[in-house]
Input
Amino acid sequence: MKAYINGREIAFEQGETILQAARRCGVFIPSLCHYHALDHKPGTCRVCVVGCTDAEGRTSMVTSCNTPLQEGMKIDTRSSKVRQAQKLQVELVFADHDQNCVACARHGDCELQALGEYVGLASNRFSSRLVNERPLDDTMRGMVRDMTKCIRCLRCVEVCRKVQGVAALTVDGTGTAAHVGVGMAASQDISACIQCGQCTIVCPTGALAERDQNDEVLDFIADPAITTVVSFAPSVRVVLGEAFGFGPGENVEGRLVAALRRVGFDVITDTDFAADVTIMEEGTELLGRIKSGGKLPMFTSCCPGWMNFVEKHVPEGIPYISSTRSPQAIQGSLCKTYLAEKMGIDPARMRTVSIMPCTAKKDEAARPQLHSDGVADTDVVLTVRELSRLLRRCGIDLAKVEPEAFDDPFMSDSTGAAVIFGVTGGVMEAALRTAYAVLNGKELEGVDIAPVRGEAQLREAEVDLGEGNGTIKVAICHGLEAARKLVKQAVEGTSPYTFIEVMACPGGCVDGGGTIRVKGEYHPLAAKRTQGLYNIDKSMPRRQSHNNPQVKQLYADFLGEPNSHKAHHLLHTHYTDRSRAESSSIADTRKKLTLTDI
Amino acid sequence: MPQLLYGVWDDIVYDNRGLKEYSAPELPLENFEQFDDGNPVEIFLSNRGFLVFSPQASLVHALWKHHERLAAESCGKCTPCRAGSPLLAQQLEKACRGEQVNWAELRDITEQMHDTSLCGVGRTGTQPLLDVMRYFPDALRPSPDSREGGFYSVTTSPCIEACPSHVNVPRYIDYLKDGHNDLAAGVVLKHYPLAGTCGRVCVRYCEKACRRAQIDAPVDIKNLKRFAADKTIVPGILKPELSTLNKNKRVAVIGAGPVGVTCAYQLLELGYPVDIYEAHDKAGGMVRYGIPVYRLPKNVLDQENELVKEMGGMFFFNQKLGRDFHVDDLFKRGYRAVFLATGCPKGGYLGMEGEDITLPGYENGIDFLEKVHDDIEAGIQPTLEGDVVIVGGGNVAMDCCRSAVRMTKGKVHLVYRRTEADAPADHQEIKDAMKEGVEFHFLTGQDRLVVENGRLTGLACVAMQQTEPDESGRRGVKPIPDSGFVIPCDHVIAAIGQMAEADMLVEADGIACDRKHIIKVDEYQATSRPGVFAGGDGTTGPRSKGPSVLIHGMAQGTIAAHAIASYLETGSRPFIARERISQLISQGGLLGDSPVCGQEVKPRVKMRELEPADRAHNFNEVELGMDQAAAWKEAERCMRCYRILSIVTKSPITGTAV
Output
């Protein structure tokens, strides 16, 4: 089939949209709401308008993102009329958009700002004429929902529903008051939102963003009476580099250690250490449940988005969740007990900072269950995006820093098992490596467990636990729609699995809600980041958690056995039903209707 | 007919100002003589243009009001309408006040909204302003309107107009899309409580009007409504509160079918105490007894009738008009108005030569369906022995034959004298009946019951043929000579019509009926007796569309509630502007029929249903509704073909603001 773009004949296939064909042929059409990766084209921004003359000679202005090309169509993307229409559209987008750009989380990295340049926006006639009374919701630990910046592309709603299966986001209000809401809940904190942060990855502006806590961290550092202990998650080392010109998946661990020293942290530890401890505790817990007839299948608990999902959406699944705390929580708890003891620091004067690829980790740190005597085990959580900002605020260019090594003798050693916590299937693989060794007294041959790796949303594998121990069936899922079904199976007693790993974000932590964004694309670097972690695993001298010498020392000097009384006290937790009662009255519902007629 | 002064309609410019002789344009202006009584229309603005009838009226003022409405209607999702509509309203207000207006900028924004908005609000709501700017720019001169004229504006669409209840279909679909299932249900609940019921059995005038059919297929509006109700009302998540019954005039509703219940619901909403008298021992009427549970599980109906009870409506069961009380008794009991929703609860027989209606095995469809209902209610699986013949081509016949296939191991036949295309039944029902194994005999007339030794053994039939089309183009049928044959069977069920009960009303009630005891009503559902109103199957009037159309009945219930309120408060008939404008729209074809272009094909989502093999010998619900993901996907298909129509009248519009 044939059509014309700016007079040039092009061949196209049935169903191809004007925008698709134009991009294929190298013709640029500015667009905003369209989000190719999720096939999301709500047609709300109307920026990608082009002139379109059909085969019968009828001319109209159409949006190129969702208008299919037809035989003989003539498309005009560059006439003065079309450019004026695109420009006016962008001017109208700005009309009710908060333009305090300097105070915005997306300063310099904003799709709307870039769009203004694409269309040559020269004036901004309307911005003071419209009311912008949309809410700024500051109730969440992980994120800020600033609807004064919302441009109604609805990408967040799409990702929340179709990728995450959470559906916490709604569209509220009409006219200039229309914005993304949280299901008419009073605040996002009490809504069905699990703070996974995937919406912040897709938001083109700063309407949905991580809560920036860099100043709290800088205050700790500036206070001479305080000892600051920092640690960072496995995936941070393969993601952060992207913000400083490194290739995706490139390991910048050494540079990061050096940079954190430069920022002024007193003790630099590695969350990998806690990941290994997690395996010791969770693996022991699993074997215990199998042996004693405890609740099975057992679900992993290290992903805070997943834990929020269980509490808010499927609380009936709580008995099936491992009681072992997440690596971050274990790191925090051990810093203020074990490390404080070893280093002779008063825990009251210690502040722990955790760097995570995740917005929900901020929320996790605030859980009352993870406080000791009212004080948080983890004081501040920074996402990778905040970390990159922190380094810039301190004038540090990662590319110009020479790599340095950890020097903390207690909580910085890592293994290959700990590193792969950052990818979907990693926790499972790490746990199986150790479980096998515990049961058989020898290491699993061929450390890589290929069947649990991969990209499929739901994967399952049968694992031979060694002679006399039989096989167990395990499942791995990322994205929560599948997890919902796995919980249902468990509760109904039809689950064929013994152990299930769940990660809320697609791909796992390497593509978490707090990672570096790529404008207009959805996790395009997932494969490279994942490979980055697997490469580190392969290169490690030790690849099983139980072989981490500092972990061995921890149990020998401090905890005794995995799942000991002390370990339970410090390294395990519990969950509560936080689902919302849904009922409402018809009269209240009617009051909320925005209907101009009956 | 009023004289058009000037205007633009479908891009044709009319200007009769200063002409010596007026020649009437070919426009549907018959109804513009007056809007409400004695109140002439001065300006009309619509998606097709604008019309000015009076030199005194201020066009710029009308445009300002129209654009205020448009801004209020803007959903805020698409850029040009969200930002453009309030900007235009601001500028037009300035124009009215005689302040400086940047007309070039205003024109740019108007064109941008018109050409690039996402839906009908921005695309068509700007048509009048665009036409005025193009052809009559002088009319935009500032002219503050000092006169106290009337202004009425409505936002509608083809689906809304097609629905007798004018349910705002695009709005509830939008709420579903936006993630507010409760608000979607709330939109429907403005009109009637039986949302999940209607979402299962509605005849879907809206879908026939849906413009999406021009691209692929109509939006599955019925099942989206069902989805909203099933997620909220049916599980009891969305509940009513006790109404504040602050009006001290009590109203009696006779008949707890959908029409009576809807009227009661609306009256309770308006604050009137309502008592509902019902001849059966349960609410629901024909929807309960006539619609089999495989189409409508009765817990859905019960939950929705319960809403009326929870709002404060009182039900009195086993109370039959004409047997237990008369209309006069009701007024003596202190009711100030009465609504009769007594329906057509009697089934008709075939009326064949020598037919004996007491013959075992011969019965009418209504009695048959009620027995089936009673069995299921009592926890008994209803059964039939042997072969069954159902006679008729309407929905009752389909309910009978689809019930019968679930009850007998024998064969089930359907005999209908006309063609399949002529059958008044919902054609989806016919297809489903065929899938379930009913054998159809179209162009087959019933002749007589075959009785051997006092036992029914068959139905004698005769083949029919179509006659030549008459003047109206309709083809009749006539028997083919010597074509008689017998369908052997053990049961014959006559499903050819329903009747009102003869002895419900007596002479002394003073309520005019026709020969068949059908109550005569006017367009506001008032009977010949002051204070007595009626609606639904047992009535005939301007709004009657024959029996068994649920949505018409419920619309009548709502109209009647407003008419009763008007009667009780002012003693007069109401003027319902919303109804009046629908009359203008339908009589003048005002919405027009513009083609849909440039849309992507999005196939209608296929609803889950029981496999035909799983339907045998049970009455489980066949249609299983949509899941959340399917509902979102289907909701995406709605194009929001909104049209905003505004009317300026000489004097303020009086009457009900419904």
Remarks:
- Residues 550-570 of chain B form the longest helix (21 residues).
- The two ends of chain B are 27 Å apart (CA to CA).
